[in-house]
Amino acid sequence: FKMVSRAVGGLVSLVTGGASGLGRATVERLVRNGSRVVMFDLPSSDGEKVAKELGENNCVFCPGDVTSTEDVSAALDVAKSKFGKLDVTVNCAGIGIAVRTYNMHKKKLHPLDQFERVLDVNVCGTFNVIRLSAQMMNQNDISERQEKGVIINTASVAAYEGQIGQAAYSASKGAIVGMTLPIARDLSVCSIRVMTIAPGLFETPLLGSLPEKVKNELGKQAPFPQRLGHPDEYAQLVQTIIENQMLNGEVIRLDGAIRMQP
Ligand SMILES: NC(=O)c1ccc[n+]([C@@H]2O[C@H](COP(=O)([O-])OP(=O)(O)OC[C@H]3O[C@@H](n4cnc5c(N)ncnc54)[C@H](O)[C@@H]3O)[C@@H](O)[C@H]2O)c1
Questions:
Q1: Is residue 16 part of a domain?
Q2: Structural domain includes residue 107
């Protein structure tokens, strides 16, 4: 057995939701370590600015919506035409809402379209990016790295311990957990690995606007370490998954042993 070096240097990666939070930290770490990155995010995001900071030879911003086949295909075409291939896809684009199924105090039902929207972006969007990425990765030469690609998705601990108001978000993250193994099985014949990270509480713009005191309190919910995760700790796990070929078809909690309360 000879260990093959799978350092991220020289790889080409697509990161969705790459303009902010966990996705942005992933883009920055991959570029820092020699990967070239197509950053995919909504046109309204900071993508253009972040990509410019990283330099156009390292990072290209492609605006679009993960639920659109046209938009995702356009980003993959950029990976191919500008960087020549696609080795890694990291799905970080996602949205969340907090709405009760039925709010008896306000006598208000959870609007169905809001439920559908979260499922559409988080589940259908992630799947859309996976299927189109797999098609492009399958064109890679397997001999070089003994695999054609790696796909990494982002669930949440809410897939297991959804809190009050998280029916839609938890359902969507549970779906990402559930589809990880079957997709890994589907793509095993293409020599493509599929993994999912289920983060606990991370300090991203999602939480960043909260007062310091509230963030500290949130962080203390984790047994150890009693703090919010740093986005680069998420990115570090992405890198480890890319580098370690035995990781496949599994979901890894990255959460300081937190178990969310109702
Ligand atoms: N921050 C946390 O504590 C935490 C915990 C568990 C899971 N997560 C998950 O991690 C992922 C990233 O979260 P984050 O905290 O970095 O959030 P974030 O809001 O900072 O980043 C998400 C990015 O996704 C983009 N996006 C949203 N909808 C999109 C769409 N339809 N098409 C393309 N891009 C879209 C947004 O523009 C944004 O830049 C999400 O899936 C989130 O559910 C985050």
A1: yes
A2: yes
CATH number for the domain including 241?
A: 3.40.50.720
DSSP-assigned letters across all residues of the chain: --PPP--STT-EEEEETTTSHHHHHHHHHHHHTT-EEEEEE-TTSSHHHHHHHH-TTTEEEEE--TT-HHHHHHHHHHIIIIIS---EEEE---------SEETTTTEEPPHHHHHHHHIIIIIIHHHHHHHHHHHHTTS-STTTSSSEEEEEE--GGGTSPPTT-HHHHHHHHHHHHHHHHHHHHHHTTTEEEEEEEE--B-SHHHHTS-HHHHHHHHTTSSSS-SPBPHHHHHHHHHHHHH-TT--S-EEEESTT-----
Q: Is 169 among the catalytic positions?
A: yes
Look at ligand 1, atom 16, and give the residue with the nearest C-alpha.
Answer: 21
Number of structural domains found in the chain: 1
User: Could you tell me if residue 197 is inside a domain?
Assistant: yes
Ligand 1 atom nearest to CA at 157: 6
Judge if pTM exceeds 0.85.
yes
Nearest atom, ligand 1, residue 45 CA: 37
Tell me if 123 is assigned to some domain.
Answer: yes
Q: Taking CB atoms and a 6 Å cutoff, what residues make up the pocket around ligand 1?
A: 16-17, 19-23, 41-42, 45, 65-67, 92-96, 121, 125, 154, 156, 199, 201-202, 204-207
CA-nearest residue, atom 29 of ligand 1 = 93
Domain that holds residue 56: 12-252
pLDDT by position in tens, the chain (length 262):
555 556 899 999 999 999 999 999 999 999 999 999 999 999 999 999 999 999 999 999 999 999 999 999 999 999 999 999 999 999 999 999 999 999 999 999 999 999 999 999 999 999 999 999 999 999 999 987 899 999 999 999 999 999 999 999 999 999 999 999 999 999 999 999 999 999 999 999 977 778 888 888 889 999 999 999 999 999 999 999 999 999 999 999 999 999 999 9
